[in-house]
Specification:
Chain lengths: 112, 112
Amino acid sequence: MGATKTEHFTEKQNDIAILAKALGHPARIAIIDYLLKVDTCICGDIVNELPLAQPTISQHLKELKNAGLIKGTIEGTSVCYCIDEKVLEKFQNYFIKISNRLEKKKNNCCKL
Amino acid sequence: MGATKTEHFTEKQNDIAILAKALGHPARIAIIDYLLKVDTCICGDIVNELPLAQPTISQHLKELKNAGLIKGTIEGTSVCYCIDEKVLEKFQNYFIKISNRLEKKKNNCCKL
DNA sequence: TTATTATATTGCAATATTACGATAAATAAT
DNA sequence: ATTATTTATCGTAATATTGCAATATAATAA
């Protein structure tokens, strides 16, 4: 036990869950926020922005990278990270779908 | 160590992270999917739908409830769960903001 | 009252995540 | 070549999550 039973769910469900999970930590939201704030897509000064040690941030960046939410290109000694719009769009589309479905139902749910 | 350093991040960042985290498991995505599928927003047959034991599902429901994504109203012996649109909207708004920001940048990011 | 049914809670084992110091690897500067 | 700079990886401790059997709770039915 303890491990998620991934194989019992659909690919779509797992895909969305992986993206959501990657965003499920304030440090990683802060990283995304920072990447959006800085105009010239930024590299390693994220370490100076966040109140976490360098290895910890490196780990969070890796998780965002694994989920496909950001990409990193090496530039000399530093790495330039930026948001992958396509993957973020995919995630957004999921919520658009949900919204559409909820609108159809017109909130005729229970007694809320 | 081991625990998330919540206090170091903004309230907004924590809010979004909590919502994302709640959706960061395929079973919980499956629950949301099911609640959307069933017209008469349904209760405990989620247990029959998902390949998980009843206590496990109860726990996942609790997490969705804690995050504010769903609400449960007692109806006799059973409980009627449904999606809370407001909270979901809040989450969606975050992505709309991101999209807008990314559009401004026009993808002039690194060499991607 | 005594089942029955539906959901929640408890307790626990297995696994995953978070965080960081120490260290490695790789490039740039001297 | 040596030294700094930047990022990644390893190892490890603390904590959290996942999943379920057993049990509790609460409302209904007999």
